[in-house]
Amino acid sequence: MSKIAPVNRRDFVKLFSLATGGILLGCNISTDKKEFVPTQNGNFTPNLFVEIKPDGNIIITASRSEMGQGIRTSLASAIADELEADWKFITVKQAEGDAKYGNQNTDGSRSVRTLLAPMRKMGATAKVMLIKAAAKKWNVSELDCIASNHYIINKKTNDTLFFGDLAVEASKIPLPSEDAIVLKKVEDFKFIGKKLKSVDLEKFTHGTATYGIDVRLPDMKFAAIARCPVTFGTVKSFDATNAQKTYGVNKVLVLDRLIPPTGKFFGALGGVAVIADSTWAAFQGKLNLDIDWDYGENSTFNSEEFKEKLSKRLLEKGKLVPGSKGDVDAAFKNSNKVVEATYHVPFLAHAPMEVPNATAWYQDDKIEVWAPVQDPQTAKAEIAHFFNMPIENITINVTFLGGGFGRKSKSDFVVEAVALSKKMQAPIQVVWSREDDVQHSFYHAASAQYLKASLDKKGNLTGWLQRVGFPSITSSFKPLSDYASGFELGMGFTNNPYQIKNFRLENIKAEANLRIGWLRSVVHIHSGFGNNSFVDELAFEAKKDPVQFHLDLIGKDIENQKNTKNSYNPKRMKDVLKNTAKNAAWGKQLPKNHGLGVAIHYSFYSYVATIVEVSVTNKKVKVENLWTTIDCGLSLNKDNIKNQLEGAAIFGMSLALYGKISTKEGAVEQHNFYDYQMTRMKDAPKIHIDILDKMHEPPTGVGEPGVPVIAPAICNAIFNATGKRVRSLPLIDEGLV
Amino acid sequence: MSKIISINGKSYTVDVQDDMPLLWAIRDIVGLTGTKFGCGVAQCGACSVLIDGVLTKSCSMPISYAIGKEIFTIEGSSKNLEFLREAWNDGNVPQCGYCQSGQLIAATALLDSLENPTDTDIDNAMSSNICRCGTYSRIRKAIHKAVAIKNNAI
Ligand code: FES
Ligand code: FES
Q1: Class of domain B79-153
Q2: Which of A18, A127, A384, A403 has an alpha carbon within 20 to 30 A of A614's alpha carbon?
């Protein structure tokens, strides 16, 4: 990457000349502006690269962490499509955590939404350059040349030239202006929206993908850390004699808590670290530690009491949330019937299959990290802050992620590794045990909500009051954030998919005594559960069919609705619901002890409806079938979306059936998969996914929107089968699994 | 405490204590990292290997048990594993991929013992492997597909 060709202000792509010959294009995307951003003088730092080599191979450097959403594959497909490339020549490389690769945070199902347009333009630009090079070589008009399957074809003579053979020539072509770039029509897509296999399949089926935990450096040591069972407790004193004597243990040392400055970062818990020759020796050494803890002020925190405390607060008015409208009290007074219910969701941990881990090598003037992180740039900023290192001297190599679900967007395990590497002056890999992971997560908050609604004589909804409380994610940045923030209430509470005239939302106080974070679909888990459970109860009270009742609540189409990607469109919501009902043959005769339940939700700009069929035998629930329909706009990679929604169904089932983190005297009571259980193959239902074809709409989220509907759909199906209403998760606590 | 173990037909000398679980000897000492750590307590199957053909959770089996026996990991190759790999590719099974080493080894053990497993056989054989990404329906389909590929190949 030596010389930069002149670019004019309006260009969005940069051309680099390569020593090896071939094309290297870079473009800049910004997550905030969601568009290309040349700087004032027309220069900019590219953060996405496409390289076409003389042997025909195309290397795409992707800027998102791979954590199972097939992002690398989806993004590569957009480039390959516009470029008319042959899929087998495409390789995707992971960008390191560097600002030049753009914002790399993978939270919020944003990746495809943000990156699709730039990726396509990059591919189209490269194609134009290859065509120009071929036309020059043949001495014909560019109009006579087309690109197809890694060749440029001369339409008149049928001569062909291989992409690779044009790469060097093409790199000398001046960068075409933006006007010369014409994107393909939706009908002509070859890869976008098609079934496309993961670019990493071979690695996954041979065990050769390098996850964070697989990183091996010369002279690397392994570390395990004993952290206080109670959040933010500290080490009073400890006896390391037995730990030191453990076979393979090199050293025992104290790791101070890294306290983040208010408003940003997450820091690390601190504790006592054991450095050893193998992961197991480190784990064993840790078990042999004798530590006296100062449990601190969270040691009185019992999650059962907290649940009761929230329930009590629900009896009184909370803070009025903007977005409330109409007169709920009048609606209640003038109604035919009033219905009330209270719902609870417990704390949850992410438990990605790959535990948190990181490898760091602190050398005098630089720090290098290898880690499975969802947000490498925040990790980098935290390291710079805590270790007082200039940001340009820090490198983060993002490995494959064995699942993230939000856990790996926090960098606590990364700064732990850096701190230990600094102390040991050697490369250190910190590995959390599963118990560490379950007991020291950034938990999905527990919630309580009270709902009250009124129905008129015809069974129509006239007023809706919702009082909700849960510890805020903000508490992890700012102490004393006892109320939910706007962005949290905007996840399905202020913007539920219903048209309700009289609507009041109140927020009650909920303090945090655990570290709170985001977990796949975040607050939508609460709103999805409360809204859909309650609507089902209302349908029953109104003696109406639940699907029809939902459709009525979604309401009329909005006339002449401007079609922007962020505006909620009731028609699209109704369409997914009708489609799911059709697929599930809603209304059909069911076998004895079977029941159907429905739930809808709008999140990350996507529309989802799910219907679940359960059977209940001897009071035990089995999910037999599950139908989900999504409208996520343009579907970049249908098979990947399908896989994501199947996964979301299983993830949602895990939390509905088993998910619960509880505390006693501040300490988490669960340990490992035997008491924090997951859905297994034998629990897995037949899953039927349908993706509505919306190729002309912008793409919206797919990784998370499939989750919030699952728990309420199951609970509504249980009610349908048995008449028993589940208002508090998980089902295992109700004796139903 | 030097000992010799054989993995995928190759011998390795390792110097570890007798009670070190095989998983950690394979990963940290031998350096084959395809076999994964998920729970350490025989609950998730990420660490699955075959020892003399028997499906074993290597996190909960001391290395001493494997001495003189043949250990088979995801880095290895066998007829059934290759059929399964093809089926896995065909069905685009993995998401994050992390559990898939263990899933493939468990599925290999299943096909080694049953010619044509039913859904119930599959559910029973595969339920000790957790996939947090939830690829179960694809795994189920892929195992059937592997059997079909195998029958076509003969
Ligand atoms: S790591 Fe061995 S079963 Fe989970
Ligand atoms: S593919 Fe991610 S845990 Fe199975």
Answers
A1: mainly alpha
A2: A403
